[in-house]
């Protein structure tokens, strides 16, 4: 059997795609996979590292800002789209998959549209509580849509929706590392408080600025830091690194970062699914730079159940570090947050999705 996987741009799209492929492969070891991503994006490195083949499209999204560079990029967008559609047609016709799976990102649109034209069944995996325009259009012709949130009927046909949760990497689901070993991996002391701060795979300027501006306050509080600042920001903040503040552009050993942390500070995209499985106290800062503010909608369900602390992006500089320090000093609040967020965990999402996909393949 042949399965075409497409999606990427951020870890929230790439890692679920890899998790789904791994689950299908575990159930059907002889399955042949091909990934399609966007040239220059992280999937072009992460997918081969996971052991899968990938081909890239020269595609980018519409720019939402109105500076000159964004306007120029939008002017050439139709050209890139046509080029990507042509290459997607060539890839799909050559590979001839039995089924395709899209997890979001620039490449998903052209690839799945071609699959629809060629009569190849495809599935969508929507990580967020708000579906983008591309996925809403693709959902109409899809064989099914796997979602993590209830109420998605406003975006997709009700009979196509499967509430499975978001797929999570095996290394996160099956964590076996002790906190002492995890702290040691970063050169930190397991007997002292550790905070893991991440703005996602690409980094987040507001979170980075909030940490940098209050770095002395963090040191004075005796807090150790694992700080994933993003590739675009590493030069700006590298000089702040000390023996107790570890700064990385991208952390490959997320298992160690999660295990070492007493609390976790993060964006609220697809990472929420990992954080629920980890079951540790979290402070979430939704990104304002996403369609329809969907990260705030993602986190609201957790806030309603007292499963996380919400700090608005615009308030990060004033409130983030003080919220960290306050939470670290309140063990009762930490226990409550851990217990409540764990209720959102869906560790078998990848297997449930794989089962539905395999059923479709067998039916065809």
Number of helices: 16
Strand numbers in spatial order across the main sheet: 3-2-1-4-5-6-7
Radius of gyration: 21 Å
CATH fold description of the largest domain: Rossmann fold
Count the beta strands: 13
Q: What's the SSE blueprint?
A:
Blueprint: E1 2-6, H1 11-27, E2 32-38, H2 43-49, E3 54-57, H3 68-95, E4 99-102, H4 108-117, E5 122-126, H5 133-139, E6 144-147, E7 161-163, H6 170-173, H7 179-185, E8 194-198, H8 205-213, H9 215-220, E9 224-228, H10 234-237, E10 245-248, H11 254-260, E11 263-266, H12 271-278, E12 282-284, H13 294-304, E13 309-310, H14 316-328, H15 331-342, H16 349-363
Parallel strand pairs: 1-2, 1-4, 2-3, 4-5, 5-6, 6-7, 8-9, 8-11, 9-10, 11-12, 12-13
Based on the model shown, name its key terms.
364 residues, seven-stranded parallel β-sheet, 45% helix, 16 helices, 13 strands, Rossmann fold, alpha/beta
Would you write up a description of this structure?
The chain is of the alpha/beta class and 364 residues long. The protein folds into two domains: 2-167 and 348-363, Rossmann fold, CATH 3.40.50.2000; 171-342, 3-Layer(aba) Sandwich (Rossmann fold), CATH 3.40.50.2000. It has helices spanning 11-27, 43-49, 68-95, 108-117, 133-139, 170-173, 179-185, 205-213, 215-220, 234-237, 254-260, 271-278, 294-304, 316-328, 331-342, 349-363; strands spanning 2-6, 32-38, 54-57, 99-102, 122-126, 144-147, 161-163, 194-198, 224-228, 245-248, 263-266, 282-284, 309-310. The strands form two sheets. The chain has a seven-stranded parallel β-sheet, sandwiched between helices. Helix 13 (294-304) links the parallel strand 12 (282-284) and strand 13 (309-310). It is globular and about 60 Å long.
